[in-house]
Amino acid sequence: MALTKVGKEGITGISNSSDATAITINSSENVGIGTSTITNTSNYRNIHIEGTNGTIMRFMANGTQVGQIQADTNEFQLNAITSDPMVFKTNNTERMRLLSSGGLTFNGDMAAANALNDYEEGTWTPTFFGSSTAGTYTYTTTGNSPYANYTKIGRTVTLQVMLNNITESSAGSGDVFVGGLPFDKVAGSAPFGCVHLNNWNTTGTITGVTVHPTTFANSGDKLQFTLDFDNTASNSLSLSHLKSGSSDVGFSLTYLTA
Fold this sequence. Notes:
Elements: E1 2-5, E2 14-15, E3 20-25, E4 31-33, E5 47-49, E6 54-61, E7 64-72, E8 76-80, E9 86-90, E10 93-98, E11 104-106, E12 119-123, E13 127-130, E14 136-140, E15 148-153, E16 156-170, E17 176-179, E18 193-198, E19 206-213, E20 223-229, E21 232-236, E22 247-256
Parallel strand pairs: 4-5
Antiparallel strand pairs: 1-2, 1-3, 3-4, 6-7, 7-8, 9-10, 10-11, 12-15, 13-17, 14-16, 15-16, 16-22, 17-20, 18-19, 18-22, 19-20, 20-21
């Protein structure tokens, strides 16, 4: 059976005496729109829609477009045209919601503050310098690819870093600082991370090493290191502890960004 679009007579509607095929329904009860050659999948009912550049299905409410499905050679779109969210359900229960302002919530939660609004992975380039005098330092990354990476989920950033054979080109002074974080730490947070040190000229029995921001009250993109000792006050890792050409430092840190 073929339903054909109106041609020469100027009659509105659908006529089977017109000049071109508009809709085809074959004997398997599959439908073709824009084509009479329907791609069939066995034991399924098929709707085959074809256009020169692609296909658009528009969804209307009282004359206003509220949604759209579009497919072409570049992408497949599900588009909530208005400011309403896009909701996904299973077992007639909401499981996931795309907010109109961006962000993903789960299980009926509608709060923008709770929405997952970003996921990102990448690498960054750490800078190694002194707190009093920056100096110039280089490092190698042999065996570590990437040597400095991050994962950002929402506001939470996790870093993993390994700097090998840190070498002094021009002398710096003060505490060891690492800068160039991919995202600034938010003001008021106090994250601490774990550290691996190798071939540093430290004295005393170190019971722990932590990495943390240089400032807790304010935002920033610099980190420093604290050495903990048995029955002795903690102090900062200093450039005076560096063995140029052989010292290594690696660390992992999770912190919040704005």
